[in-house]
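Postdoc handover notes: sequence design on the structure in folder B. Input tokens:
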């Protein structure tokens, strides 16, 4: 029987040997021909010896020249292996899962030295210290290396500059950069509290021991069998429950905001809310920037602020770091919301993989009950106090234009 390309490459039999590589980077991609060059340029800006690095590309049904671009542009590393993942996608995590399984299979079969495996999205831009930090991580006893992340502010500023009038420009600034600023602070609080937040867009590395504590990378299912979102976060959630430890780099990686732009154009970010929770719908690499009116931007801003609160609270209870977070939160309403969510979480009966999946209906329900318990006045007060955290227009633009390799977040919320 003739084996498919996926089956042949899946176990690593036809992949190039590891050689002296100590770092394997898994890069899933789908029709990224136009985007890959900037990602690869950011890899090449790293000074780490190329003979220590093995690039493992996961080609998910690409119809362009992404694979050729990746092979040519990454010449000089120990090797660039390509795995073809041809399954009709049911979760954006499936190509990454295939890549990580293949990478650790390579490690088990071929490496006589400590080797770490990382993953990052192909539309990201990594820090010039990305591989240097991975080398530093190699010399520790920790299980995970995590990176702070924000969206590509250049694209946000370009989109803001395209708006038709001053009111729309100002509204777009807060809807895009302002919300991203707030999310950056909230992510930093989670990381500092001990959350092992494994995000494809931000990039992360882990050891074989960390991979085992996470029970691998796999799709997560609701009780009705629906694949729900959050399979990357589930890696860190499971690992933390098994007492994995992590270090957090100071150096910033940059994510693509294309899913945000897509949701502004189409009212969906590639996901839909199904019976079991948030589940995958489609993927598109369209970079078209939206032009909206002031009222639309303001509506989006309010929606995203609520979304930022919900995601923060769900991650706080999923990673079980509520007490650590509360030590750095001086907004009484947010403190109370976290306390209520934690109490409901502790009495919730999770089924299937729901406790691992931040997109599950179970977590959405826990947050909804906790938020409702605040009452309308405290909900409004919480939103207003978070808005007061935002920098003014001038400082927000300055933050967006900051190209520093390290951007310090706020250490608490008042």
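Designed sequence:
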């Amino acid at each position: 029987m003739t084996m498919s390309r996926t089956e042949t490459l899946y176990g690593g039999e036809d992949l190039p040997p590891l050689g002296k590589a100590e770092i394997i980077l898994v890069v899933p991609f789908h029709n990224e021909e136009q985007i890959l060059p900037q990602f690869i340029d950011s890899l090449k800006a790293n000074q780490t010896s190329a003979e220590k690095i093995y690039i493992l590309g996961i080609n998910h049904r690409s119809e362009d020249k992404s694979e050729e671009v990746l092979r040519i542009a990454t010449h000089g590393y120990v090797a660039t292996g390509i795995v073809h993942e041809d399954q009709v996608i049911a979760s954006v995590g499936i190509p990454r899962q295939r890549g990580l399984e293949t990478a650790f299979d390579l490690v088990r079969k071929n490496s006589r030295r400590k080797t770490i495996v990382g993953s990052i999205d192909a539309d990201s831009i990594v820090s010039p210290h990305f591989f240097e930090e991975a080398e530093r991580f190699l010399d520790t006893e920790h299980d995970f290396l995590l990176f702070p992340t924000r969206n590509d502010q250049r694209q946000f500023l370009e989109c803001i500059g395209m708006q038709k009038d001053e009111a729309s420009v100002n509204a777009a600034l807060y809807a895009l950069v302002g919300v991203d600023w707030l999310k950056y602070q909230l992510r930093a609080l989670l990381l500092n509290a001990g959350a092992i937040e494994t995000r494809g867009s931000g990039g992360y590395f882990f050891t074989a021991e960390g991979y085992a504590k996470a029970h691998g990378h796999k799709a997560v299912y609701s009780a009705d069998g629906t694949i729900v979102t959050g399979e990357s976060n589930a890696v860190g959630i499971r690992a933390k429950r098994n007492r994995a430890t992590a270090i957090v780099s100071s150096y910033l990686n940059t994510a693509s905001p294309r899913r945000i732009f897509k949701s502004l154009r189409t009212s969906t970010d590639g996901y839909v809310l199904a019976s079991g929770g948030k589940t995958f719908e489609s993927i598109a690499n369209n970079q078209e920037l939206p032009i909206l009116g002031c009222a639309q931007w303001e509506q989006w801003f309010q929606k995203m602020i609520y979304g930022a609160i919900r995601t923060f609270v769900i991650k706080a209870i999923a990673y079980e770091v509520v007490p650590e977070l509360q030590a750095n939160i001086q907004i009484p309403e947010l403190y109370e919301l976290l306390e209520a969510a934690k109490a409901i979480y502790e009495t919730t009966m999770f089924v299937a993989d729901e406790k691992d999946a931040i997109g599950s209906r179970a977590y959405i329900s826990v947050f909804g009950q906790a938020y409702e318990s605040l009452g309308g006045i405290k909900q409004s007060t919480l939103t207003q106090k978070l808005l007061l955290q935002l920098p003014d227009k001038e400082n927000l633009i300055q933050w967006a234009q900051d190209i520093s390799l390290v951007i310090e977040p706020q250490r608490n919320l008042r």
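Context for whoever picks this up: Residues 1-13 have pLDDT under 50 and may be disordered. Don't rerun without checking with the PI first.
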